[in-house]
Amino acid sequence: MVQVKSLADLQNLKASLQNKLELREKGEKADSLVQIKVAMATCGIASGAKKIMEYFMNELEKRSIGAVVTQTGCMGYCYAEPTVEVKLPNQEPVVFGYVDLKKVDEIIEKYIKNGELVNGIIPVNYETIDDNNK
Amino acid sequence: MEFVNLIIDNKPVKVEKGTSILKAAHSVGIDIPTLCYMSLGDMNIENKPGGCRICVVEVEGRKNLAPACCTDAHTDMVIKTNTMRVLNSRRTVLELILSDHPADCLICAKSGNCELQSMAHKLGVRKIHYKGEMSTYKEDFSPTIIRDMDKCIMCRRCEMMCNKVQTVGALWGINRGFQSVVSPAFEMDLEKSTCTYCGQCVAVCPTGALTEVDHTNQVIGALADPKKTVVVQTAPAVRAALGEEFGMKPGTLVTGKLTAALRRLGFDYVFDTDFAADLTIMEEGTELLGRLGRHLAGDKTVKLPMLTSCCPGWVNFFEKQFPELKDIPSTARSPQQMFGAIAKTYFADQIKVERKDMMVISVMPCLAKKWECQRDEFATDGSPDVDFSISTRELANLIKGANIDFNSLPDEEFDNPMGESTGAGVIFGTTGGVIEAAVRTAYELQTKKKLEKVDFEELRGFEGVREATIDFDGLPIRIGIAHGLGNARKLLEDIKAGKSNFHAIEIMACPGGCIGGGGQPLHHGDSSILKARQMALYEEDKNKPIRKSHENPFIVKLYKEFLGKPMSEKAHHLLHTHYFDKKNEFIIE
Amino acid sequence: MHLLVCGGTGCRASASDAIVGKLQKELDEKNLQDEVQVVMTGCFGFCEKGPIVKVLPDNTFYVQVTPDNAKEIIEEHVIKGRKVEHLLYKDPTTKKEISDSKHMGFYKKQLRIALRNCGVINPENIDEAIARDAYSALAKVLGEMTPEQAIQEMIDSGLRGRGGGGFPTGLKWKIALSNKADQKYVVCNADEGDPGAFMDRSILEGDPHSVIEAMAINGYCIGATKGLVYIRAEYPLAIERLKTAIKQAREYGLLGKNILGTGFDFDIELRYGAGAFVCGEETALIHSMEGERGEPTFKPPFPAESGYLGKPTNVNNVETYANIPVIYLKGANWFNKIGTDKSKGTKVFALAGKINNVGLIEVPMGTTLREVIYEIGGGIKDGKKFKAVQTGGPSGGCLTEKHLDTPIDYDNLIASGSMMGSGGMIVMDEDDCMVSIARFYLEFTVEESCGKCSPCRIGNKRLHEQLDVICKGKGTKDDLEKLKNLSLVIKDTSLCGLGQTSPNPVLSTLDNFYHEYIEHVHDKKCRAGVCKDLMKYLIDNEHCVGCTACARVCPVGAIAGERKGPHTIDQTICIKCGACMEKCKFNAISVQ
Amino acid sequence: MSSVKIKLNPKEVEKLKEVCTSFNNEGGELINVLHKAQGIFGYLPAEVQEIVAAELNVPVAKVYGVVTFYSFFTMIPKGLHPISVCTGTACYVRGAEKVLDEFRRRLKIQVGETSADGKFSLSCLRCVGACGLAPVVMVGEKVYGRVSPDGVAEILAEYE
What we know:
The complex is a heterotetramer of chains A (134), B (589), C (592) and D (160). Chain A has helices at residues 7-26, 42-46, 49-62, 101-114, 129-133; strands at residues 34-39, 67-72, 84-87, 94-96, 121-122, 126-128. With 134 residues, chain A is an alpha+beta fold. In chain A, helix 3 (49-62) packs across helix 4. In chain B, helix 9 crosses helix 11. Chains A and C meet through helix 1, helix 2, strand 2, strand 5 and strand 6 of A and strand 1, strand 2, strand 7, helix 4 and helix 5 of C.
């Protein structure tokens, strides 16, 4: 278990974690690794996000696509739950709303495999503090 | 001491820091009306939930009106207590309270003595603009207290008395919003709760929500029955308070008028509970000396301290909450019950009246007495030693109802043999009095010496828990005193933990003792009234020719003719009792 | 290449379907269907200028596109690579065309500070949080600042409590620091009880570490070693995630003894609410944590002097805490440049009701209601007419058309007769009856009043009853005066914030929709058709053929008439169930 | 000693006492204990409150005062399938009232009641935070979004 015992520890840990995440994003397997985040707050789960997440995991494995599927909190698009963010290697992330199992198939087949966007994209309509800083 | 300067209604005011606006205003003669607020300053009892919102005032610079009872005065505050905004708010709030209160004032037990009624009168409410649904609850008749919660205004005084002061835990705020009310658990009847019938909830209730069970009709019935010989006894604290019901100054002693009134009402024999108090001292004092003697002789089985047992509220309290201590209190019955037992045996024989034809009525400052006289232990073949107990307030109603002009009555004497008493019996009515009376007798019986100074100032006062060591001619006797059940609890916890080193402890359930009993004229939160009543009792004691119980000639005669000696078998049978474990035990099925 | 066509409700209404069809047709004709995909998206949040077409990968942003423009877009942009100038958005100040949406300031109305990690990190993985700077602010404060300096930074930032009242956070901390005691407490109020608000829950579910970190900072600043989170028991997921986060922080040594080797101890426990709205009030919350009925007590003493277990206690809400780490990392000067003069930073709103894009949004203070409703929220659902927006939940008020351009901040909302509250924002349309809305909120208050003080306990009940009478068509004009007086007295005399604000929905609707009240009491009409008792079902003699279908279906026998003759409804019997209207095949029955 | 007979499962009572012990029989933990107790028994009958009061050494009147203050606590056993209709503002303006009426009509019970066969109980709750799906109904743990009065029969049919 990591124990963060000093300020230096925290900085080191942060740096290494950022590296790790970056590796995950841009690393050796950059050509093959797809990142998928499923919004799993109460509203997402209420609209079936759990099933979507499981389906993604199973299907990606079945179809031999290297991907990391994680959960995340509310993205704010409650009207369009369940929502899923898909980030292809070296590309801007794209958010899909109203995702059902059929849509998952479509996303895998069209977007993940061929880079073709499919209906149901939700344009990101906010800035984060990272943007604001610039 | 730090002071603050402020302005109330254009008057400059200087008060100690931490003083409420209400008290600050009062100090310059500005009276802000209050409803839920109540303070018995001398006993550190204060109820200020800030709930009724009648006492609101305008504080310059504040957005909302401030409740005067719980807002502290600060330097440079500018306060207005009577602007149109304040007056409109006050009246509107009162109208709201009245809109959820039955308007049956004409036949309400509290009519004429109701703080809500007085407030409506004071604020000149003539119409209730906001009408609507009224809250209704089931009525609860216990042997002593009636709860008619439709009349509750949620001042929470009863809840505060029951929990903070008495630690009885029978009443609590339940539900929320419009349905909220003060109630026993599960809205069960008080009878099934941990209630001790101390009656302090009734004593502070501003409306007719909490009242005593009225036994005046039973008394009238007994008096009207030509076949019955009706004997009445009046407790010491009654004579110091009854006058208030007839407009007299608090602390006016009305012993003589009281006797005269009882006679006019038609009682056949007018006796004094003080006589029985003297008898109690003989029994309890002897019991104490017995336990003390065995303790000094090295008997490890003897239980000390001995606790007094003349207060029925207190007996209910330890039976329900400290049953493990039930063999510590004295086994002596209370004066009321000793009186009943002697009246229906010794005295009945003397006047040749059969038990079934005699009725004993007691006038008590207490509501728990109503329940005590109904206990099975205090009846012979179903016939109680004391038939009915009425409160000081009920007696006042009887007198008023009988067209007796109390104030112009002559002073009369009690009848004999059970009307003669000593100063020791009189002070039973105040905290510290029972133990002082016991000391006067025990000292002489133990030391066989004459007690020169009978006033034990160290046992007197209003402090919730007091202790003193009395020198019994070289033998230090440690004495504890508690009034109010919350204070009693502190001493009981010590005893349970084995930390108590007292020889004897006096406990009275009500703050102040019987003078502040649940059956007394309402004090409406004025503790100076209680103080005046206490002074009156010490005054009567001082003026008595005999001030030690064992010197009461009629008591001496009673032992000689009837009982033998204190703690004799006959005394045991008639004057002592035993206690029960009344704690709930859960049996899981 | 991708052509993204906005499929948000607003754009859809103005023919985005047709645009997609046209684009597709053009592509097919030019045999480009394999190279260029046309995709329908969710709302871009710029409905005013819709329909919108965005071209990827160059981010060109076309506004107010019609189906007729499809050909032009394909021929010019797709084939020749030239932008269609006249479809580009023109900056309203410079009047210059902007092609790349990344440079369109108006487009990104939202700024996420409190929600910075929500929907970005995996909330159950502390590593992801740390990689995004979690606990760096704590490290900075512990390592570089004294409590006094840290509090000064908070004061300088201008952050105000996000729970409702808007008390300056730094000042609150300063008072708590100044009260000496052997033990102090830091409490996070997560008892979000506004019906229709879910900001705090979303933050706890999406980024629990930001709250934990801020509480630790708060503890350091005021000298408290114990933190408590008072959280609604109805939030099981938030509870789980928070528990996980606390556990992970402990394992990393970021909670517990000697944090980061600085000698500072701090740990957090959870306390559960049990469904009492009044427990959002801090004294009630503290009583509830102590195992008592959640009844508020009069302040002073403030919790900062005597709070949990009688010790100095600082209470802040979830969103307030979520802002705090960033403030320390980026500095008070960064934060206090965002927002308005007296309200700094951003505010999270739960946007709901009759609006297209229901969701969680975060905007800088000073954003107008119009921007929120029409640009972020995508406008009113089903193309209906906007009527009101309710902010501040049961403590707030209903704002109307004329308030739409008011910049949102604490003071402006209060001046308009509403309040910020915790951030619920409910949009209402022409189908909502404002008297009924006021009654709805009062029903809530009556249910949630603790019952301690008489104006709130009885007054709100009477308000509710009075509103009910009006909705039933039995009110008079005098009743409106009574409503107003009663409302003002309840506000003026109630014990706590609940009662002091509960009449706001009544007062604000009386102010802004007085005509609707008048219609109810005078004309006995409810324009929205919500108040059943004010509705009348009528049979039009001209259309009625006397088929008797309505008479047969009427459950109370209110309809009489001869076969083949005109029928009539006895209004005194009719219960307004609407069955007759449904049954009538000749459109002879109407509702008034 | 006055004995109060209690009809409860002894194993569950044991569990409850363990819960009290785990909170050090501390009166200040009353609400936490009640949460756990409701978790064990499904509701808080008078008997359970008596035991909690005795274990934590607080007046049973206080326990009852607390139980009746908080809407989360119930003294009525919930149905096998507890139905909660969200009556938060977002759901209200989107027609929750009509949905609730339909449940009332079909189940023939009022809010706070349980059907005679113990199958369904009906309650209201304030916002599950799924306002995007308003009006929302929960049956047990399952959330139903965008419910219309016509959809009520369908939902109930799932549990028949």
